[in-house]
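seq as requested:
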Amino acid sequence: MNKTLILIILFVYSCKPEISNNIVVTSPDDKIQVELKLDQGMPQYAIQVDDKKLLKSSALGYRFRDQPDLVGPFQLVNSNTEMIEEDWEPVWGQEKSINSLSRMIKLELRERLVPHRQLNLYFRVFNDGVAFRYEIPKQVGLDSLFIIEELSEFRFARDGKSWWIPGSHAFDSYEQLHKVSRLSEIDSANTPLTYITEDDLYISIHEANLTDYAGMTLKRSRSDSLNFLSNLVPWPDGDRVKTSAPMRSPWRTICIGRSATDLLRSRMILNLNEPNQLSDVSWIKPMKYVGIWWGMHINKYTWVQGDQHGATTENVMSYIDFASEHDIQGVLAEGWNKGWEAWGQEGALQLTEAYDDFDIGAVVEYAKVKNVTFIGHHETTANVAAYEHQLESAFAYYDSLDISAIKTGYVGAIKPSGQFHYGQWMVEHFRRVVQLAASHRISLDVHEPVKGTGIERTWPNMMTREGARGQEWNAWSEGNPPDHTTILPFTRLLAGPMDYTPGIFDIRFDRYKPDNKIHSTLAKQLALMVVLYSPLQMAADLPENYENQPAFQFIQDLEVDWDETLYLEGEIGKYVTIARRHGSEWFLGAITNDEARELEIAMDQMVRGDQVAECYVDTEDAHWDNNPYPIWIGSYKVSPSDTLKARLAPGGGMAIRLRPLTEEEMGQKLVSISDLRQDQEARE
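struct tokens:
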């Protein structure tokens, strides 16, 4: 009886047809098509956009260390297609509500040959891209899995211009300037990898929901310069992923736009993550902050206790006073804890012991009285084993002090030796830290992190991260060129919020480091606080450089949690203009590369009735290299029918606050915003 049943089941399986070439999954608007097939039993996918081929047939599968490759030949056991639509509200973000609409197919595959292993493939097709993932269900004979290669291919049909950072063999740093080349000239790349096809599609390759898995880089095929292969960051023994069935991979994402700003609008990566896991989120607070940080990079202060120590009780309290007076919600202190003088030594940094000149209890209480959040700091020196030994006590210590936000850092090569920042072991570590922080009601700003993949939807206390070449490089290197920040929105920031630490007003800081400088104008530093999104946004300069500076008013007024965002214009590496709304006010930021640029922006998307535009814009003679400071500040009347016309200096920018008129202003005659360009010229 049982043998007969088994024979019948096998017969049914054998009669299942292969996926035929005409099985296509389309986006809800029918403009993107994913073609799925079994080529001699081997699973492949291809993508068309607007009836043009984007990806040729690309292979899928796995190689294991201790068993045969899971690549086929397969037969189709079952398939299921469904429309998925969801409206959800992030705890914080670039808008208050997000719509997720996609068509998903699940393919259940079974090997034709013994041992008849099972593999499920999921494809979700959105109006703005395609995502796929693997699932190895629980089954007899598949317990422990040692993946040595994920065989996902991205076989592009056409070449194009690309922006990328190398998929370093060290797998340890995203802090590099983006290279610009033909797609076919890339050898290896970290993601997001962004490129424009020859027929003007804007594409970004990345991943979503990186959980219990290695980070993905891309490497070029030896046989096809437009074929890129998944290249997972390894363990010391060469395994890429150590896991067990059931297992699900992260989503591999191909974001697709018809313009550069389409990439900025996409929320596909967030939508591919699970909903918020925290029942109480009242303690998670987006905020602006200042801190003891930039002073160390320009050599005014030291992390180590001594004559120039930055994180003293007196100094941090002065930062708290400044924050309280200027509507800044947080103050960060780095270098308050013992051990910085023993940098690099085993277990040097003591995360619960303060230097003698820093009374953390008094500082935290002082901050509370001033209604300012004290932001703690965990630097690990990348000695992750030592950090994990202190994790519980360090978070419990901050919890006992009622500290609700911390910055973590992982500078250097990971210890234990052989592990990498973006390998599975570290991915698991980062997730443990996020979850432990949540259990202590602590939010995180992670530096030297694993890249963002949208987990802030699931764990909204994971608020921001570095993961790119940030502002500090201007303090001790050749600096970030003016086009760097016009590339980041279309590359790194597609992965999630970034703590770039903008807002430097002392552009040249000659008093401390005469051979270094910021490669932007003052107006651009304001604009970056709008353009480079972070729910924890640092005004990074020294407080004394903000005092008596009229441009600082924009930072005081700035919000960091948004009801709505408009991506008004942009081209990768050239310019970008973004407007964000909080309540009845809009904040606009526009930046350019090293070329001057004329701006024309219609106001009808933002303005309802007459409003006031408080403008901070480069003067006619401003220039990032030889004249970065001149800034024109003026208030103008603006109506929905107006068009803003302004000039951005080379390496420059513009920041605007749009707000309702006050009762007093309603009776005044204000200059129209159409005269802003004339005012710039008159300022020369």
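Confidence is low (pLDDT under 50) at residues 1-17.
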